[in-house]
Amino acid sequence: MFLKRPLLSTLKAIVFWMFAFFIYAFIKYNGLEQELKVYTAEKLYLPVLEYYKYALILGVIIGVCHAFIEVLFDAVFGKRLALGLIMLIKAITYFIIIVALLSFFSVFIEELIDIDLHNERGWWYKNLFFWNTILYFILAFIVFSLLKITNDKFGSGVFINMLLGTYKKPKEETRILMFLDLKDSTTIAEQLGHEVYSKFIQDCFSDLNSVLNKHEAEVYQYVGDEAVLSWTTKKGFRKNNAVNLFFTFIKELKKREAHYAKTYNTIPEFKAGIHCGKLMIAEVGTIKKELAYHGDVINTASRIQGLCNSYNVQLLVSQELLERSLITLKYKVELLGDIPLKGKANALLIYSVTEN
Hints:
Shape: elongated
Number of helices: 14
Radius of gyration: 27 Å
Helix content: 55-70%
Largest sheet: 8 strands, mixed
Strand content: 15-25%
Order of helices and strands: HHHHHHEHHEEHHHEEHHEHEE
């Protein structure tokens, strides 16, 4: 699973750049062979299909390089440099790679068809074809970067739904919601001060983000030191994703105990409440669009999480969730009782969940 995300990113980059360079070859060479025959005596160096083939090969190579650079830059510079500066450094890196790749391809084609091409040292400096390619690459790079930024902003599932206009009109769905909250957050904030505390929360949510894809979770929103996660019932109940995510996150935090102890002199503990039910999802806003959830299930999940301190437990779930999941096959489940929740007329059966 550690390798799954980089491999998926690499595959996406390869597909994008293969498509981008195929379109470039199509725009530049499609129909050109016939036009040259009619109006001039010139011929293309290669048949048009060969240009398509090399465009696809170039796309694969650029895609692999792109994915590698993205992962490397995110790991090394992601938390240190501004987005604009990172993109500038990436652009320079890609420029060097493009020069090297086009130089290699020109030498390879030159040997293949036995024609002298202009590929001497510094050939690219005054080469119009090269600068056309660079301009196209920059435009494609901007498109790819904007898609990635937008996807990171909204989340993959949310971005696709907004792109398709799924929730232009309010839509009813059955969803699983988890309210995940930092324990003793007020005390920790007072100890660390607001600036260090913000970095502390950044670290915690970074560890949370590292396990989201594995458990197919969507982030509905971050509110201070609380994260609200969401699943469709299909994804949330599959492999116990909703419950497994919580304990995977706790294990991730334990792996980094030394980091938190050394950096912040405190070790984070989180508590969570999970509930499922019907709610309405609607796209709201014009200047800043987002998906909004409306329904009693949201308040109920929040209230359940609020009971964790009262019963000194890390994870609480509702009977509605328990009845539809496979929690009891892997975890120890204990009935806390028919508990009244603030703002609700009827009490709910609430269960604590712990690892065996």
